[in-house]
Automatic annotation (TrEMBL):
UniProt keyword Transmembrane, yes or no: yes
Subunit structure as annotated in this protein's UniProt entry: V-ATPase is a heteromultimeric enzyme composed of a peripheral catalytic V1 complex (components A to H) attached to an integral membrane V0 proton pore complex (components: a, c, c', c'', d, e, f and VOA1). The decameric c-ring forms the proton-conducting pore, and is composed of eight proteolipid subunits c, one subunit c' and one subunit c''.
Described function: Proton-conducting pore forming subunit of the V0 complex of vacuolar(H+)-ATPase (V-ATPase), a multisubunit enzyme composed of a peripheral complex (V1) that hydrolyzes ATP and a membrane integral complex (V0) that translocates protons. V-ATPase is responsible for acidifying and maintaining the pH of intracellular compartments. Proton-conducting pore forming of the V0 complex of vacuolar(H+)-ATPase (V-ATPase), a multisubunit enzyme composed of a peripheral complex (V1) that hydrolyzes ATP and a membrane integral complex (V0) that translocates protons. V-ATPase is responsible for acidifying and maintaining the pH of intracellular compartments.
Molecular function GO terms recorded: proton-transporting ATPase activity, rotational mechanism
Taxonomic lineage: Eukaryota, Fungi, Dikarya, Ascomycota, Pezizomycotina
Subcellular location: Vacuole membrane
Pfam families: ATP-synt_C
InterPro entries per the UniProt record, alphabetical: ATPase_proteolipid_c-like_dom, ATPase_proteolipid_csu, ATPase_proteolipid_su_C_euk, F/V-ATP_Csub_sf
Organism: Tuber aestivum
Membrane topology listed for this record: Multi-pass membrane protein
Start and end residues of each V-ATPase proteolipid subunit C-like domain: 1-59, 77-136
Gene3D superfamilies in UniProt: lithium bound rotor ring of v- atpase
Record protein name field: V-type proton ATPase proteolipid subunit
Family: Belongs to the V-ATPase proteolipid subunit family.
Length: 145
């Protein structure tokens, strides 16, 4: 369940962030096609969220065995949920900020730096979930409660 939660929720967040930012890039590209490549940053940052889930999912699945204690199972579930739900929240934030930021950058280019800063803070939310998941997963390998 931890593997599934990690990959599913982070991919939900990454796909929402990609889709929402992609809509903004498409709308902006009609008016200013020269800014499309510069505005692809939110899509890349949303994709990184999915990688966080993949990393935790692989780590949790490598610790699975036939007989597993309840303690280890719950820690692995907690690891998957922490990175998954943090990735979902980060993906939503990246999508909304990316959409509005890209559209705003088309009208006022000075907004680009502000958009990047806000996107970095949104990405850090997913990174917090990854750190907690790695700590939980390392604790699950230590033993039985």
């Amino acid at each position: 369940m931890g593997c599934t939660a990690a990959i599913v929720f982070t991919c939900f967040g990454a796909s929402y962030g990609t889709a929402k930012s992609g809509v903004g890039i498409s709308a902006m590209g009609v008016l200013k096609p020269d800014l499309v490549v510069k505005s692809i940053v939110p899509v890349i940052m949303a994709g990184i969220i999915g990688i966080y889930g993949l990393v935790v999912s692989v780590l949790v699945s490598s610790g699975l065995k036939q007989s597993l204690s309840l303690y280890t199972g719950f820690l692995q579930l907690g690891a998957g949920l922490s990175v998954g739900l943090a990735g979902l929240a980060a993906g939503f934030a990246i999508g909304i900020v990316g959409d509005a930021g890209v559209r705003g950058t088309a009208q006022q280019p000075r907004l680009f730096v502000g958009m990047i800063l806000i996107l970095i803070f949104a990405e850090v939310l997913g990174l917090y979930g990854l750190i907690v998941a790695l700590l939980l997963n390392s604790a699950s390998a230590e033993g039985v409660c």
